[in-house]
Amino acid sequence: MRAACAALGGVIAGFASLAVAELAAAVVRPEAGPVAAVGGAVIDRTPPALKDFAVRNFGTNDKLVLELGILAILALFAVAVGLLTLRHRIAGSAAVLVFGAVGATAAVGRPEGRVSDALPSVVGALAGAGVLYLLSGRLVAPRPAGERATGAFDRRGFVVAAGVAAVASAGAGLLGRRLTSAVQAGAEASRRDLKLPAPASPAPAVPAGAELEVRGLSPFVTPNKDFYRVDTALVVPRVDAGEWRLRIHGKGVTRPVTLGFQDLLRRKAVERDITLTCVSNEVGGPYVGNARWLGVRLADLLREAGVRPPSEGGRADQLVARSVDGMTIGTPVEDVMDGRDALLAFGMNGEPLPFEHGFPVRMVVPGLYGYVSACKWIKDIELTTFDAYDAYWVKRSWSRRAPIKTQARIDTPRPFASPKAGTVAVAGVAWAQHRGITRVEVRVDEGPWHPARLAAPAGRDIWRQWVWEWPATPGSHTLEVRATDGTGAVQTARRAGTVPDGATGRHSVVVDVT
């Protein structure tokens, strides 16, 4: 019984640590909380292969799985220190401070870390150590001097103390959440009250026939709620648009620029349909989506700052974008300034950017995987060279340059589906941003290739739907698809993983026709 209570005391002390730390983080900043800080540090040090495993198996729930894992480890640690107090009350209580040291080190050591970020973990650990010391004192029954200790202990006193500690911790956690919500209210209001400007350069009308009417096929425009999200932020930044600033500086910048959000809105707004793809997308994977973006041309801002691309004698060949969460993304200057619709976007599908997708401003560069182009919550742009600086993912074994590879995906029928014999619509999407798709072919059981019917082209930076009417016969069959891009290059059959610059191979599905 004493051991069970000691373990419970450790768990309550751990809960107190997290609750008080969350309250302190509401005062410092939400990203400084110990779970977010440790989780961020784990992500920073995760090998690419393990990161790919997490994305592949847990999808957009990878961060939730990481957080639950951290909490599970903390719970086991709490049980261990609680049991330790049975023999060494002071040492067991002091062991909680290890929790604070780990959290503080992780918080300060993150790319965007500040000294003040250590405070939540330290304060939380001190509170947890105090709670555990008090609770462990109830596990020893009072006895006259000189008598030996027995297995008895103050059960009623422990239950009362544990209950008070648990209620107080819950109150601290609730107060922390409310304070965090109050701090974030300004950012949420700035998004809610934002009225997007009318585009001076509207997106071309989507041509008739660009969206095929096939059940199970991905829609031409991906709704914001369904658009993929892959990033390292455990706590989604809430940035007040009124306080947002962007600085452009560095090599070859003759006129440094600092812009506020209203400065950006007063500029010529450009609206474009652009398909984005994550480099972590496996062949046939879900991390690709098409949206209508509203923003300003990044190339125009760079030229106003005096920047010239390398082809015009410019000194910088890399643009390093920095996010408020510390992420750095390196983009080739030549690609940003070659005439493509590279945007600093503030609108997505007719509404302000969702916080999860970078509000108030993010980068969108057609033709490049997101890890070298799509900086969310952007706050700083530095012009430099690839030789002088390696951005976040390049330091982790990914390539410096990463144009999107030609890919096609079968959306319907789904793997292991059981369609009826007869005419079956095999349909999906294909993409080769900034090159376009000119042909899609499907084959059955490694037989001859059959041309699919393509939807009307909407632009070379936009994915293209396709469909092939398959005369299906009973039995198990393998369907395989390949695409040809605007340069005439046919999608390769060579299988390769996502590291270091995107997966290759052809998507296939197995179905059982009845």
Helix and strand string, N-terminal first? HHHHHHHEEHEEHEEHEEEEEEEEEEEE
Q: Between the first and last Cα atoms, what is the distance in angstroms? A: 61 Å
Structural class of the secondary structure composition? alpha+beta
Number of strands: 18
Instruction: Identify the overall geometry.
Output: globular
**Low-pLDDT stretches:** none
Lateral arrangement of strands in the main beta sheet: 2-1-10-5-6
Cα gyration radius (Å):
28 Å
Largest sheet: 5 strands, mixed
Helix content: 25-40%
Q: What is the helix tally?
A: 10
Mean pLDDT: 93
Beta-strand content estimate: 15-25%
Could you explain how this protein is built, in words?
The chain is α+β, with helices and mostly antiparallel strands and 514 residues long. Helices cover 32% and strands 22% of the residues. The strands form four sheets. A five-stranded mixed sheet has the order 2-1-10-5-6. Strands 3, 4, 7, 8 and 9 form a five-stranded antiparallel sheet that branches. Strands 11-12-16-15 form a four-stranded antiparallel sheet, with no helix packed on it. Helix 1 crosses helix 4 and helix 6 runs antiparallel to helix 7. The longest helix has 38 residues.
Topology:
Blueprint lengths: L1 H27 L5 H11 L3 H11 L3 H23 L4 H21 L9 H19 L17 H38 L52 E6 L6 E4 H5 L4 E8 L10 E10 H7 L13 E6 L4 E5 H4 L6 E6 L2 E2 L9 E3 L13 E7 L22 E6 L9 E10 L5 E8 L5 E2 L1 E2 L9 E9 L2 E11 L22 E6 L1
Parallel strand pairs: 1-10
Antiparallel strand pairs: 1-2, 3-4, 4-7, 5-6, 5-10, 7-8, 7-9, 11-12, 12-16, 13-14, 13-17, 15-16, 17-18
